[in-house]
Amino acid sequence: MIAAAVFASGSGSNAEAIVQASALPCAVCLLVCDKPEAPVIQKAAGWNVEVFVCDPKTFPDKQAYEQAILTKLQDMQIEWIFLAGYMRLIGSTLLDAFANRIINIHPSLLPAFTGKDAIGQALAAGVKVSGVTIHFVDSGMDTGTIIAQEAVPVQPGDTHHTLHQRMQQIEHRLYPETIHYILTREGKE
């Protein structure tokens, strides 16, 4: 069984969807969180996964921070990383060690609306369609190779909350499906 880690910084709804997906060809063994007060940490108590809280403020630089995470990942023989609301750019320490084995989810149809608050960006731009993208992680901000996308119509009167809720319904299905596809394909190559 493939060993995987989920990285999250916030509430953890996508992390939870991955952990609870029944047909994945991997075992999520580790949650990595960069925020000691993040709600995902309490959620993870019921997931039967180890939680590794690694606060970047306690390290002298990004490389030292990522090296601490890498050591933990290597100790646990983690093979894949799934970012689920992890609000940090991944640096070369992790990118080099996990080349083409880090996947992210983003609440827009990339390349539109990269970075933080993509939903707010979409609403401010007045687009009629936004969506969800799952992509490989590279050194840029939401610039990696796109694996899957699904459109979400922006309805008249949508607020950040209502659009986010509809996007999450898609995310919670699409992310596990895409992980399954990638890991199954990887095993056949």
Number of helices: 6
Strand content: 15-25%
Q: Residue share in helices?
A: 25-40%
The assigned structural class equals alpha/beta
CATH C-level category = Alpha Beta
Provide the CATH architecture: 3-Layer(aba) Sandwich
The parts where pLDDT drops under 50 for at least 5 residues are none
Q: What is the number of strand segments?
A: 7
Tell me what you see in this structure.
The protein contains six helices and seven strands, in the order E-H-E-H-E-H-E-H-E-H-E-E-H. By secondary structure, the protein is an alpha/beta fold. It has a single domain, classed as Formyl transferase, N-terminal domain (Rossmann fold, 3-Layer(aba) Sandwich). Strands 3-2-1-4-5-6-7 form a seven-stranded mixed β-sheet, sandwiched between helices. Helix 1 (13-20) runs parallel beside helix 6 (160-188). The longest helix is centred in the C-terminal third of the chain and has 29 residues, at 160-188. It is globular, with a radius of gyration of 16 Å. 36% of the residues are buried. The mean pLDDT is 94.
